[in-house]
Each structure stands twice: as C-alpha cells, then as structure tokens.
Amino acid sequence: MRSSGRNSGSGNRDNRGGGGRSGGGRSGGSPRPSSGGGRAGGGRSGGGRYDAGRSEGGRYERRDDRQDGRRDERRPEQRPRRPRPEERRYDVGTEGERSGGRGPSSGRGASARGGAKGGPRRSPSAGSDRRTAPARPRELDAKIEERNRERHNKPQVKLPKTFGEQEGERLQKVLARAGMGSRRACEELIEQARVEVNGQIVTEQGLRVDPEKDEIKVDGLTVATQSYLFFALNKPAGVVSTMEDPDGRQCLGDYVTNRETRLFHVGRLDTETEGIILLTNHGELAHRLTHPRYGVQKTYLAAITGPLPRDIGKRLKSGIELEDGWARADDFRVIQQTGKNYLVEVTLHEGRKHIVRRMLAEAGFPVEKLVRTSFGPIALGDQKSGWLRRLTNTEVGMLMREVEL
C-alpha cells in the first residue's frame, strides 16, 4: 500500500506541472506541489536533509565546475591593493587582506558596501603587527627637560616701550583717551574732516601724533590730550577761596577730597560771594584765564536797593574811579525789579579784589548779595550750591580757545 501511494504521489506531481521538481515525496507524508522552479533533486529521507539523489543534482555539479581548474569570471582573484588617498588613514590594506578580501570596514569602500562613511578608526586585531616609534634615549629627555627648565625659570624682562620708526600714538587712540568718544566714534570724526593736527585737517586713519607736542583740535576746539582735570564748583557763601585754611575755616579743598591729583583754583571769590569757580591742574590755562591780557569776561548777579537812575548803566560802562584806579563794566542791565529791590547783571573782564561790590558801592548802591553766574564760556546754569561737576571736552576746548591755547 505504501509503494502504491508513493507512486501515485509522484504521478500527481508529474501531471500537475512539467517544470516541477522530479523526485520522491516525503516518507510517510502527502504529496507536495511544486512551484515550477525547474530544479532537480532527490526527495528527503526520514532522518537526513538530502538523500543521494539530491546530491547528484546540477547545483553541486556547478559548484564542482568552479573548483575544477577553471577560474570563475564573476569573482576575480583578490590581490593586495594600495588604498585610495581618502582611505589611507584607515588600515585598508592589511585589514582587507585579513578579512578575506572584503575591503575596508570604513571610508569610501565601506560606504559602497553599506558601512558608515568616515566612521571611527577600528583598532587592529590582537595578532596584527604594530609599528612603534623608537624610544628616545634618557640623555635626550634630560637635555629637553633642562632646556625647558632654563627657558621658563628665567625672569621676564620688560623692555621699554619704543615706537621705532613710527613715533607717537594713533590719533584716534589719543582722542578716545581724551574723552572724545569710543575709538570708532573718533574714527568717524576723522572721516568727517572735523579733526585738525597742527592746523592741518586730517581725513586719513592711522596718523601718529605726539600728545605733548602736537596741537589737536576737534571742530576748532583744542583737545586736552594729557591727564588734565577741569572742574566747576558752585561755591556757597562763607567758604574761603583757598585749597587749605590754617584757621580751620571751610575752604575749596573740602569739596575735592579723595583726589590724588593736586588741584588749584582759577581766580578767587570773596568769602560772602557765591557762584562758579574753576578748579584744575592745568597751570598754563589757569594763568591765562586770570591774566588781564586775555580779558576773560565774568558775569555777576547783584541784589541792590533802588531806585536806580536811568544813567546808572552808562556810568558803570564809562568807568568808576576807585582808590586803585578806574574800573569799567562791559555790560549792565536790570534783570528783575520788585518795588525798590533790583536784581542787576554786571559783566566785566577785570579781576581785582571785590571789584563789583566796590563799583556799585561807589555809584551809591551797596550790594546785598552777589553771585557769579559765568566764567568765560562756562555758565553756572542750574548747578546747585556746593556741587562740583567735571567740565565736558567741549567746555574745556572753549576755555582753551578763549585764551589762545
């Protein structure tokens, strides 16, 4: 019964498709349909994978043909090759030969085979030969260590700063240090032709100047390029116009404490007179501001009691004779009148002691209160009594132009 069943199973296969497998069915099993693959082979036996009929098929015969003295054209013989330039940093040659001709595990070759392009370099296997650098002799290491010790243990010698062939400092740097703005802002001033050096307009960057010798101006105003200080103090009444007072009275020095640079006042105000007084460490400027040759004007507000005659201004401008000579006012006007109380403004360029008080008293109008509101181009403004402020660069330039500095 079994042989007939097996024969009938094989018959069914032959009848179902001409291109099916030829061979016996499974032992003790039902017939298996074929998909028409066209491969020849024997059926399976009970315990083994393939029987003798399968081993005699064409598949193994073709494999035997490749081993038969003839070289397969599809797989050329692997030969050691030189790596491409982009593959040389990876051990392509030795790894490729050891791996059976599979090529590099990284780089361009690995990318073509599905690997990671430019991946990390893999360490060689344990049995590979590594090239090691020859060890340096101990004498060489000792010399290198001694040389480094001598190099780093030497005291650093600072050479004096010299300008070499190009003397001086860059103009924009000098302007920035003088407080005219940032370096970029000072470069824009130069580009706008607003800067003069020794009377010549500068429009190109990189000019080197000597701050101590060259005359630098911005918009026609001299720039104080050195470390000069300029302050304006609204002196209260009762303060002595000295930097120090041996009698212990309140003086100007009490308002400029905690300063390393020594300052001195420009001119004087009597103890009971209020108003603006300048402090600086620029000796030449202070001397010229108080010299009669330059005629720097000062303006005062005086409170007096009237009534005032109409020709009071004319009399003051024409001159009032005092015990030390004639004194003349440059300008006179009435600012405010409340009944018999007048507030008048007097402008003059003289700087003699108590000059305004003596002039008005000689004219018949004693001063009750006196305030100096301006010194040259520097005005008191809304500065409070007892406050000290630093002059701006523009104000300093105006002062220097006033006395031809």
Topology summary:
Elements: H1 2-16, H2 52-55, H3 58-66, H4 92-98, H5 108-112, H6 138-153, E1 169-170, H7 171-177, H8 183-191, E2 195-197, E3 200-202, E4 208-209, E5 216-218, E6 221-222, E7 230-235, E8 264-266, E9 274-280, H9 283-290, E10 298-305, H10 312-318, E11 320-322, E12 325-327, E13 331-338, E14 341-348, H11 355-363, E15 369-375, E16 378-379, E17 388-390, H12 393-402
Parallel strand pairs: 9-15
Antiparallel strand pairs: 1-4, 2-3, 2-5, 5-6, 7-9, 7-17, 8-9, 10-14, 10-15, 11-12, 13-14, 15-16
Helix pairs in contact: 7-8
What report would you give on this structure?
The chain has 405 residues and is an alpha+beta fold. Among the domains are: 169-222, Roll (Structural Genomics Hypothetical 15.5 Kd Protein In mrcA-pckA Intergenic Region, Chain A), CATH 3.10.290.10; 230-402, Pseudouridine synthase (2-Layer Sandwich), CATH 3.30.2350. The chain has twelve helices and 17 strands. The chain has helices at residues 2-16, 52-55, 58-66, 92-98, 108-112, 138-153, 171-177, 183-191, 283-290, 312-318, 355-363, 393-402, and strands spanning 169-170, 195-197, 200-202, 208-209, 216-218, 221-222, 230-235, 264-266, 274-280, 298-305, 320-322, 325-327, 331-338, 341-348, 369-375, 378-379, 388-390. The strands form four sheets. Strands 7, 8, 9, 10, 13, 14, 15, 16 and 17 form a nine-stranded mixed β-sheet that branches. Strands 3-2-5-6 form a four-stranded antiparallel β-sheet. A hairpin with a 2-residue loop joins strand 2 (195-197) and strand 3. Helix 7 (171-177) packs across helix 8 (183-191). It is elongated. The relative contact order is 0.08. Mean pLDDT is 73; it is low at 1-68, 90-107, 109-117 and 124-128.
